[in-house]
Fold these 3 entries.
Entry 1:
Amino acid sequence: MQIGKLVTDWYAAHGRHMPWREGQDPYRIWVSEVIMQQTRIEQGEGYFYRFVDRFPDLASLAAAEQDEVLKYWEGLGYYSRARNLHAAARQLVETHGGQFPSHHEALLTLKGVGPYTARAIASFAFGQQVGVLDGNVLRVMSRLLNDFSPVNRPQTRRKFQHLIDGWVAGQDSRSFNYGMMDIGATICTPTQPGCLICPLEAVCQGRKAGSVQLLPQKDQKLKRKVRYFNFYLILNEKGEVAIRQRPTDGFWGGLWEIPNEETKRKAWEKKESEGGGRFLFELKHVFTHFDMMINTFMLSAGAAPAFEEVQFISTDKIAIFAFSKAVLNIFENAWQNMD
Ligand code: SF4
């Protein structure tokens, strides 16, 4: 039996129900896909509801200020996703009459929309017969095909994309792609695949060859980069804290932060800072491409070096501004230290 039919039949009986799978509104599908990238479903769900509650459609998102959009993203990380979502909403309103294109290649022209998201919207909202490759689906395919090509290589993705586009042909595109993702997430899991309950068992080459536990193969990642920072919690005589807004490019673009500067590893390890102040604690924040090691220092405004474009706000106003998770952690730890 065809792989496509096996998957769609299984999905009809066992697929997972998720709020954004009900209906075919491209806007909700797009928002959910962007939120769920690199986010656990349990965590992402709350963000999704809050986001679409405040910005129920393209027009409301396009009309919003970036600061407010970032506020609804606060704590979720990867803030370029929120900035791109906002920019693409404006792009759609300004140049596409507020309508999503229905073909994945046209969707690729939107800011921040890559091959995965374009195909997800094209399939889930418009039924276009294209395969959607996420990390779970790549794992299922490498086992199903008993293919030892590293799944993090572009040429492997291209090969798998071509194959999965063939499997979806003639099937209900939504059911097939959701089915493949669900099999990957719930049955063909990384360490304990449930082959005995898998709808693909009869056609699974990896199962036949006894190589399931060896797949998928991946190229080793390069050693992670580590960067060292000093963050300054600067308080004035009224107990207000100094904050500033980051430029829109680079990490945490457009978010608010406390003054900080990058430093050398040796000085960081000695807890020395050019800005002076009392050392409070260290934290680690993990980005996709590097680890950020943070020393936090506290100092009074009079003794602090001049940082550009700083404003002081009372601590009860912190909730109004959008901060990164790292800075929110600094606030939380600092207030605990003071108790
Ligand atoms: S039979 Fe096992 S290895 Fe093959 S796709 Fe199903 S769960 Fe994965």
Note: The mean pLDDT is 93.
Entry 2:
Amino acid sequence: MHRPGCDPDDMTELDFLCDFCGRDWSVAQPFVEGHHGSCVCGACLRQALAAPETPPTGFRCNLCLEDRQDLALSAGGARLCRRCRDRSARTLERDPESGWTR
Ligand SMILES: [Zn+2]
Ligand SMILES: [Zn+2]
């Protein structure tokens, strides 16, 4: 998410917050952005990958903003679907600069 009250014309890494742990981009790296400024950091993604599969349950995913049944992570009032989890993990794995591993 974007920090409340931030200046959209002058965004710094401190203005991007992980939707799930609330840490900003300067400390929580790497970051993957979803729709409407939603963000998930590498640590929360790793947590989502390690979480046990949950039974289908209806929720709105913070990253794709769709109504989903495949909950991967629920933290900080935000929810992540398994599709976005896997897509974000692939994005980070393909980016050599991210240094991210599962
Ligand atoms: Zn996070
Ligand atoms: Zn999603």
Note: The chain has a mean pLDDT of 95.
Entry 3:
Amino acid sequence: MQANERARPLRVGVAGLGRLGRRHALNLAFRVPGATLAAVCSPLEDDLAWARDVLPEIGCDMRLYRDYAELLADTSVDAVWLVTPSALHAQQIVDALRAGKHVFCEKPLSLDVAECERVVEEARRFPGQQVTIGFMRRFDPSYHDAFSKVRAGAIGRPFLVRSQTCDLNDPDGFFVRFAPTSGGIFLDCTVHDIDVARWLLGKPRATRVFAAGAVALHEGLRQFGDVDNGVAICEFEGGKLAMFYASRTMAHGNDTSSEVIGTAGALAIGHVPRANRVEIYDAQGVRSVCTPTFFDRFEEAFLIEAQAFVAAVRARDGGEAGAAEDAAAGAGQGATLEDALEATRIGFALRESLRTGQAVTL
Ligand SMILES: NC(=O)c1ccc[n+]([C@@H]2O[C@H](COP(=O)([O-])OP(=O)(O)OC[C@H]3O[C@@H](n4cnc5c(N)ncnc54)[C@H](O)[C@@H]3O)[C@@H](O)[C@H]2O)c1
């Protein structure tokens, strides 16, 4: 984009219109200033039918592609938004960079460490293009407030993070169907907690991990070497530590929370996963409804993350001075390729530890 095009919106093409891609597409179509949803892409007719039904109906003008190569060949698309199966991310990022596009890609960067390294290497050849990996928890207002407080010294020197990602049980077997492409519970769920821990602890290097797991309900996960409940410990250089828990079997909803402990205090983020501020007082006691899914918990974070990406790209492509500063702050908050590489490296080591029953030294 040239400087004289600065008033033009960023034209985005979303690839993948499944569980999460549709949410991203709706955000980009209607809720992100400076962005236009120019195209969508999915090999599935059901997904394209959804786009035909839902997006034009509410006034969106865009093109539909079945083939990712066609999306990349569309010269009117400035940025691609990858919400495709995790095993495809690495090659799709490389292809998008070579096609001259900016890239937003959902987590994880890849299920394979060497693939992550290849993307980091390739991206260095395209310094003018933005690449951000979607660790949206960094944009959640509560997580961001905790991060700012840690940075300001509110709890002294942070040295320990406890963090969990726990999904509502799905008795219909969604998690078993998702297992062949998810990378397993540690690369799919815990990868968020790993990123949060590194982010809150100042990006220390991991030195050793140990993981264990159990199949509490979903026997079908065993054939993929996966579990529905996993715990892990991660040691970092400089005496820093993290403890992780991930579950697919919660009875009450999506229960995602983190805690950071420092030498002069601690911060807890989201320990009671309330859907809203209503308390029910009845014969069973006093309770709240829980956030049902990850999207209900992090809807605002997904939106702020998209707004920050679009602002960052528009600023680097020739925006105004003030916008550039705001965008630099937003871009700095997001996970870089190097952050995403480290998250996969640690998540992969946890999967190895689960498989072998041994600690893994990194
Ligand atoms: N940030 C989060 O908390 C979060 C939550 C859920 C999913 N995710 C990530 O989002 C990604 C998608 O997850 P999902 O749950 O939406 O999966 P999904 O299976 O529901 O959707 C995947 C979509 O990608 C499409 N697709 C497959 N191959 C394609 C190709 N070559 N080109 C274009 N589209 C293609 C599929 O047709 C489908 O529409 C995964 O990487 C997952 O890890 C992140």
Note: DSSP finds eleven helices and 15 strands in the chain.
